[in-house]
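Researcher: We're teaching a course module on how sequence relates to structure. For the next exercise, students receive a sequence and then see the predicted structure as tokens, so they can try to spot secondary structure elements on their own. Here is the exercise chain.
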Amino acid sequence: MTNDKVMALHQAIEAHQIKGFLARDEAEALYDFARECALIGPCLEIGSYCGKSSVYLGSACREANSVLFAVDHHRGSEEHQPGEEYHDAELFDAANQLMDTFPALRTTLDVFGLQESVIPVVAPSQIVVKKWATPLGLVFIDGGHSHEQALSDCLSWAEKVTPGGLLLIHDIFPDPRDGGQGPYLALQAVISTGRFIWQTTVNSLGVLRRIAD
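Model: And here is the predicted structure for the students to work with:
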């Protein structure tokens, strides 16, 4: 059952019209899993966009006296570019002819008072992961959905999850008729390493648990 804190987040997200692609049951799962895993290490997300997922993850981390690292280059994924299916003209920086979702994320964090609980990292995921050394309790991946990008994100960041922690991958569609296969194939690649087991699925959110080495 959704608790009062999560229900309040739902209502505030809708009231402030925070942009994002996250179903309610997935949002609730993010909150619950982050509240659990933040006790064993900080959390991290790939693909913050305007901060919808950051609100749920960051609020859970704040409760656990932990933090969320929000990694995004804020130039939009392939599907967000002009002429593509999920392009949003309000997030397009006309002066520089580039997508720019960082101002929206900053506004979201201000609205929800998460400035000390969510740490934005404005850079491409593949650059950040090369120098990342802190073991993570939870990693949520919702970045580029191409097979190449999803595979790179999932395999590289999976290595940063501490034993007992979770790797969450968004937009898992086993049936190609339901959506792109990049994240689903990347999830299968992570399982094939033998270091994770598939714990559950919430809507399109795949949940993998890191097992001991």
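Model: If you want an answer key for the exercise: The chain has seven helices and nine strands. The helical segments are 4-15, 24-37, 52-63, 102-111, 125-128, 147-158, 182-191.
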